[in-house]
Specification:
InterPro entries: HATPase_C_sf, HATPase_dom, Sensor_HK_TwoCompSys, Sig_transdc_His_kin_sub3_dim/P, TPR-like_helical_dom_sf, TPR_rpt. This protein is mostly helical. It is built from 23 helices and 7 strands.
């Protein structure tokens, strides 16, 4: 204990020079320095010289505790700061402490307290005439209404905040962005996506005035609205950008929202395995954020996911948990209390407006005595505003012209890239169809022509037709495989694995006496991406090698191996324990075709065999 007191006394002169001087600036700077912040805030500083210094310490301690996820402790610290700070002396920190409490209690799911603190912040900001904080507090209350699913009230309060900022000469871009987001999220969950996007896109207009990381909520909100409209690809781009910045800042509440949206996109697209992974990530950050709102969203989306997947038992389980949580949030006494708080402050607001009206009348009487002077001042002010407006208009016009030119160049570049990708895709499809499907169709036509002019017995003719029919079915299947590959910009290793598993299953049905197995190394990354040309040629080579083993090897066991080397490159091998063959026959049984496919994708093709010792075909 003595050692801690001694350390604190040593820190005080260096950290608080002349005690009160620049204490707020130094504490603000400490928040951005993680190592020193922990040392300063976790070491209980004692003997702070003034009540104000102690209040500032607890205010910044509460912000630090929120950053590291100790939100309930952060509530206590902000309340302690309010006991020690005064509205008149420290309105900047006093009002923000109430704003912090509104946010913290909303995250923790205690919305009646959140509403109370939001109203207190609004009243405090109004008392000192701080327009930015009044608008911010209206937006805070709007978000509480949003979390309580009263979206009409949420839109009403956030728009009040916007009205204040529109009338104010020096609105904060951060406060305006926060208020626009509040309007947008209420419209979004009110099933009015066009209105939601209208306000979210207005936030992006503030981009030159703020850093990119300040837009993480907007990026996620735009993605969420587009997701509800079914625009999954566009939605994912916005949410990925938001996740990038939130991961850098470590904001667990926002990360939980990002993963939840990405999981929803995945299961709506039918990618259940990816959705499962993303749902696990969502739950991790929901727990870390301690947010009842995010837990509610997670449970509901798990219900939708399990329902989509067809697991009705799990779906019902998540729905029951969601209903229990929602019931606990919307208890009658809580809703009643919030209504009483709102009514109380509406009465106070009307009384205040009446007092302000009387004061305005008295002030107008005084002003009427110097009307001529006032008119002259207004005229000069009008001329200044007119000149300033013209300057701003001219500057904005030049800026818009520059932006339009840049947008046109980007559009031309995007069009060229799109055409190049389409041309590459056409070339790949043409090569695949010409080399494989075209040759097989030519064989079918030739065989049919041969039947037309040759004379066969009825029995021989039937066999010939059966052979052509079987070959045609095989050609159709290969065409489907080609279309499967060509429809994808990329094929994951997981896709290829599933396709090969289906191939083996068909082989088992055809040859039940042969033992088949698909093997993959443990720990392989199944999300490795192959381009569509690589994917279809790997599959075709494995298919040809498997068919050769079945038809010619007389094997009892056939295995397909998928291997990944140190450079994350993939190789596939087909091994059988059959009779093997002479290496001089390597160009038979489709070997040249398989070798050609390997060369087409820049891979090495190998065959290891000898009579009586089985065969190993590999490409990679």
């Amino acid at each position: 204990m003595l050692r801690r007191v001694f350390l604190a006394l040593l820190l005080l002169p260096s950290f608080f020079p002349s005690y009160s001087q620049d204490i707020s600036k130094r504490l603000e700077a400490a928040l951005s320095q993680k190592d020193s912040a922990r040392r300063i805030f976790e070491e209980k500083l004692i003997q702070l010289p003034t009540k104000r210094d102690s209040g500032l310490y607890f205010y910044f301690l509460g912000r630090y505790q929120n950053v590291i996820g100790e939100r309930r402790e952060a509530v206590k610290s902000n309340l302690k700061a309010l006991e020690l700070l005064g509205l008149k002396e420290d309105s900047y920190y006093f009002i923000r402490a109430y704003n912090n409490l509104t946010y913290l209690e909303s995250i923790l799911g205690d919305w009646d307290k959140a509403m109370l603190y939001g109203q207190k912040a609004l009243e405090s900001a109004r008392a000192v005439g701080d327009s930015n904080r009044m608008a911010y507090s209206y937006a805070d209350i709007s978000i509480v209404y949003h979390d309580m699913e009263q979206y009409d009230k949420g839109v009403e309060f956030s728009k009040k905040g916007l009205e204040i900022l529109e009338k104010y000469s020096d609105p904060s871009p951060q406060v305006k962005a926060f208020t626009l987001n509040a309007v947008g999220i209420n419209f979004d969950d009110w099933n009015q996506p066009d209105s939601a996007l209208f306000y979210h896109y207005q936030v992006l207009d503030l981009y030159p005035q703020m850093d990119s990381s300040a837009f993480t909520n907007t990026f996620n909100n735009i993605g969420n609205t587009l997701l509800k409209q079914g625009k999954f690809a566009e939605s994912k781009k916005w949410i990925d950008i938001s996740l990038y910045y939130n991961t850098k800042s470590g904001d667990k509440y926002k990360i939980a929202s990002n993963y939840n949206n990405l999981a929803t996109i995945a299961y709506l697209l039918g990618d259940f395995s990816q959705a499962e992974i993303l749902m696990d990530s969502t739950y991790k950050y929901v727990v870390l954020s301690e947010s009842r709102e995010k837990l509610r969203d997670y449970l509901y989306d798990q219900f939708r996911f399990q329902q989509k997947k067809g697991d009705l038992k799990q779906a019902i389980s998540y729905l029951e948990r969601y209903s229990e949580l929602k019931d606990s949030i919307f208890k009658e006494d809580r809703v009643r209390m919030i209504g009483e708080i709102q009514t109380l402050y509406e009465v106070e607001a009307k009384e205040r407006e009446l007092a302000e009206s009387r004061a305005a009348l008295a002030e107008e009487e005084v002003k009427s005595k110097s009307r001529n002077v006032l008119l002259l001042i207004l005229l000069l002010g009008f001329l200044i505003v007119l000149g300033t407006s013209f300057f701003i208009y001219y500057r904005q016009k030049n800026k818009n012209r520059h932006l339009e030119q840049e947008a046109k160049l980007q559009a031309v570049f995007a069009e060229q890239e799109t055409q190049k990708r389409l041309n590459d895709q056409r070339n790949r499809i043409a090569a695949e169809l010409h080399d494989n499907i075209g040759a097989q169709l030519t064989f079918i036509v030739s065989s049919l022509n041969h039947l037309k002019f040759a004379e066969f017995s009825r029995e021989v003719l039937g066999k010939k037709i059966d052979q052509i029919s079987g070959f045609t079915v095989e050609t159709v299947n290969e065409l489907r495989d080609t279309i499967w590959a060509m429809n994808k910009d990329a094929i994951s290793l997981e896709d290829l694995q599933l396709r090969l598993a289906g191939l083996i299953q068909k082989a088992k049905d055809f040859c039940p006496q042969v033992e088949f197995e698909l093997k993959m190394e443990e720990g392989m990354d199944t999300q490795i991406q192959l381009n569509s040309l690589e994917g279809i040629n790997f599959y075709r080579i494995a298919q040809e090698a498997l068919n050769n083993a079945i038809k010619h090897a007389e094997a009892e066991r056939i295995e397909i191996f998928i291997v990944q080397n140190e450079k994350n490159q993939i190789s596939i091998s087909v091994k059988d324990n059959g009779k093997g063959f002479d290496e001089q026959r390597l160009e038979g049984n489709g070997m040249s075709t398989m070798r050609g496919r390997a060369e087409r994708i820049g891979k090495e093709f190998k065959v290891e065999t000898q009579p009586g010792s089985g065969t190993l075909v590999s490409v990679g």
